[in-house]
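Researcher: Checking consistency across runs. Here is Dynein light chain 1, cytoplasmic again:
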Amino acid sequence: MHRRVSERNCNANLGDMGVGPLKRSRSLRRIRGPLSAKKPEVESRVITRHQSQPAQLNQVEKNIIGALVPNGEFGLDHYCEDMFTYSRILEAREMTLSEDWMKDLRIEPRMREILIDWFYQVHNRFQLNPETLNLTVHLLNRAVQRLPIDKSNLQLTGITCMFIASKYEEMYPPTIDDFVNVSGNCVTKQEMRTCEIKILKASGFSLSIPYLINFVRRGSTVLKKQNGAAAARIHNLAKFFAEVAIIDSTLCHLLPSLIAAVSMYIAMKIDKRPWDNKLMTAAMGYDEAMLQRAARKFVKPILTWTNPKHRLQALREKYNTAKAGNVATLTAEQHDILCELALATTAFGCLAAEIILLLGFLIVVASALLLCGVEFFRRVLLLVRLRIAMRTKLITAIKKSTMSEGMEKYAVVTAIKALRQFTVEKNAARYIKEEFDRKFQGQWHCVVGKQFGCFVSHFESDFAYFYLNSVAVMLFRTAGEDTLPEAE
């Protein structure tokens, strides 16, 4: 497909103007004196709140402005920080999304990821600027929120968003025919024009937004003085991580400035470069503690989109080239650093987490001790009651029978077996009754069995078997003696 050069070049047509001085017009009067002696009147009326700022700046801010605007080019050192502040205000007003902003949409997060993955392919094919991609994704997010977009018209909406963004950002944007062809003729020119009107109306014709790539460039430019040799690699890593956040449904709700700052932070950590917290906090607007907490959310998406077996590979292929430094292929060491970032916390975070865990543990232990204490005393009281009642009734019943000493011991042992074998008291009583009836042929089972059965029927509880088993142990020891103890 024929494609004109899309790179920005403000000097593209200067070669056609000829060489030599411009002809002087007779209508122009000769200006006497040096040009700097008379300033334009409009400049004298421009008053900014930062005219006296250079005298009030600290050394860190001077270093940032010096890196962004070398030698005070074009006088922009007065407005550098104002532009950054305005970008932060604008992104908070125009680009704020909730974490569950896709919950009530007609499209699934997976469908959005597939579409943006296709954006990367079209973006590379037309060699468009990074700003065009940023604006395309922003328009798509805005359209799916404010228009009835579903699976049937999602591709039409996406390609129209890129068409609008390219006309807004590119010097030589692709034509509408180019976009129709790249979509495989799935859309028509009339459909794109109609959709373009709907998207612009839904966005309020507001296309000026702070771009993610500009925040990344700001951080890279500031770091260039400290890490000159590695600046290009860090910049490519940060761009890759930032575009992972654009496509991933778990990170796309974050503000561009935060995405850029976290991407720069992770890139520096992976490349084993020192992080100047004072300088970067002033440059990016976020301190290291906040970036460290946010970086943990980036680890899983980064590992997902760098996986060679992932079903969507356009982003990985884009940065897995020699021009991009093959930053989409992570080494084993870089993989380990990412895993460490996922587990890392700040010193304050560690202390707070430990205090919370300790308090939670103490509360659980105290509750358990309280419950166990109440239950323990309840069991002890019931056990004492059962021991007294069981020993009294059982021994009294055996004493009243006409059994010999050996038969009395057998009766006690039988009761012990019943208590150990059965978890239900009534079953134990039935077993004793049947066993006594079989052994002694109905001579006295009505005495012992009835007494024991009546006794256990009064102590039906979840813990009865535990107590009865304890009593059985006591009776077992008693059965080994020559004579049974007297009833208490």
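Researcher: Does this match what you'd expect to see?
Model: One thing to look at in this run: The chain has a mean pLDDT of 72.
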